[in-house]
């Protein structure tokens, strides 16, 4: 059984301004280690698959950086979307390319901007998911929750399936705090981590059944994969595909879904507040980066310095970031609101800071 990782690298990452910019979104930042998140994502697949079987899906603005950061990626494995159309068309495009090589090849669809602490455990879970997928199931990985998180969708799990994994009772939207507490205490719910495993032919059949509006466009693309006409047909067809997530387009409709629980130190690194989840802190709970960062009498702070001294004194649970040309100061609990800064900069036409 050959595994074909598909790394989804189309996100904009506005919650990490001023480090993230339009040309350098979150997945290209070294937030969890010394390497960019996308590089870590590809590296943790070593032993499960090869870079020659790995695909990256991204937009034109990020194609050059993605190719540079994943060493050895074949040119034909960089799939560039002419426009962003959400995850369903992006995954369908990758499935066409995998199917052209190996119709029953097992795809492992991974976000490019997540962190995994227990890499061996992650690999074991993916290998089990691939085994289940080989039998015809569409597998989604459910992350064992350790808190009542309101920033994630949830999966309600059902009975064990004969081929492995659990049945899916329901997919749930991001809940409020009380609902999230109920989910976690019930033991019936897992976080939806956006990691999927399925055979190329199985997911293409699911798109044909549950998203017939894509069928004509995908068939036109299928005929041109690997041919000179591909780029022109992609440019014409792809923008007309519906902009919808695979969760809405397929996962909530298909009957052959299996969820496989996983507990491998997963984090979506969703904002600066999540940095302490993926980086070591000092004795006072501060995460400090940069040789010129000076932190005095602070607790629970995230301080990221650039090439000039950055001094932070007497603060608690605050994020301070210097990117060289811009500075951000925000309470950790308000880290999700950083995107509002980006909106304000757009409104003031300060494009050079975006």
TrEMBL record:
- SUPFAM superfamilies in the record, alphabetically? Guanosine diphospho-D-mannose pyrophosphorylase/mannose-6-phosphate isomerase linker domain, Nucleotide-diphospho-sugar transferases
Q: What is one Pfam family matched by this protein?
A: ManC_GMP_beta-helix
Report domain MannoseP isomerase/GMP-like beta-helix positions. Answer: 293-345
**Does this entry carry the keyword Nucleotidyltransferase?**
yes
Q: What is its EC number?
A: 2.7.7.13
Q: Give the GO molecular function terms.
A: GTP binding; mannose-1-phosphate guanylyltransferase (GTP) activity
Does the keyword section mention GTP-binding? Answer: yes
Q: Which InterPro entries match?
A: GMPP_N (IPR049577), ManC/GMP-like_b-helix (IPR054566), Mannose-6P_isomerase_type2 (IPR051161), NTP_transferase_dom (IPR005835), Nucleotide-diphossugar_trans (IPR029044)
Q: Supply the enzyme class, top level.
A: transferase
**Gene Ontology annotations of biological process type:** GDP-mannose biosynthetic process
Q: What are the residue boundaries of the Nucleotidyl transferase domain, all occurrences included? A: 5-282
Could you tell me what reaction this enzyme catalyses? alpha-D-mannose 1-phosphate + GTP + H(+) = GDP-alpha-D-mannose + diphosphate
Alphabetically sorted, this entry's keywords are: GTP-binding, Nucleotide-binding, Nucleotidyltransferase, Transferase
Q: Gene3D superfamilies, per this entry? A: Spore Coat Polysaccharide Biosynthesis Protein SpsA, Chain A
Q: Which family does it belong to?
A: Belongs to the mannose-6-phosphate isomerase type 2 family.
What is the protein named? mannose-1-phosphate guanylyltransferase
């Amino acid at each position: 059984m050959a595994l074909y990782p598909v790394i989804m690298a189309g996100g904009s990452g506005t919650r990490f301004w001023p480090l993230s910019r339009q040309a350098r979104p979150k997945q290209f930042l070294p937030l969890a280690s010394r390497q960019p998140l996308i590089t870590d994502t590809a590296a943790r697949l070593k032993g499960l698959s090869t870079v020659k079987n790995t695909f990256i899906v991204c937009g034109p603005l990020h194609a050059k950086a993605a190719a540079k950061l994943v060493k050895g990626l074949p040119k034909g494995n960089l799939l560039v979307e002419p426009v962003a159309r959400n995850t369903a068309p992006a995954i369908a495009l990758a499935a066409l390319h995998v199917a052209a090589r190996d119709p029953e090849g097992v795809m492992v669809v991974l976000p490019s901007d997540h962190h995994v602490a227990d890499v061996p455990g992650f690999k074991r879970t993916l290998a089990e998911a691939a085994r289940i997928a080989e039998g015809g199931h569409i597998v989604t990985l459910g992350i064992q929750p350790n808190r009542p998180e309101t920033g994630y969708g949830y999966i309600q799990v059902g009975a064990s399936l004969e081929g492995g994994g659990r049945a899916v009772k329901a997919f749930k939207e991001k809940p409020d705090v009380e609902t999230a507490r109920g989910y976690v205490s019930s033991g019936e719910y897992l976080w939806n981590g956006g990691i999927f495993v399925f055979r190329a032919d199985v997911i293409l059949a699911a798109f044909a059944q549950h998203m017939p509006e894509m069928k004509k466009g995908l068939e036109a693309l299928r005929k041109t994969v690997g041919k000179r006409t591909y780029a022109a047909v992609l440019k014409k067809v792809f923008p007309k595909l519906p902009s919808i997530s695979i969760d809405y387009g397929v996962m909530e409709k298909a009957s052959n879904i299996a969820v496989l629980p996983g507990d491998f130190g997963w984090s979506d690194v969703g904002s600066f507040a999540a940095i302490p989840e993926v980086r070591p802190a000092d004795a006072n709970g501060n995460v400090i980066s940069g040789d010129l960062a000076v932190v005095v009498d602070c607790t629970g702070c995230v301080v990221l310095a650039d090439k000039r001294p950055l001094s932070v004194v007497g603060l608690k649970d605050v994020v301070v970031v210097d990117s060289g040309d811009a500075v951000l100061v925000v309470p950790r609990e308000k880290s999700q609101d950083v995107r509002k800064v980006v909106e304000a900069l757009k409104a003031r036409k300060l494009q050079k800071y975006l």
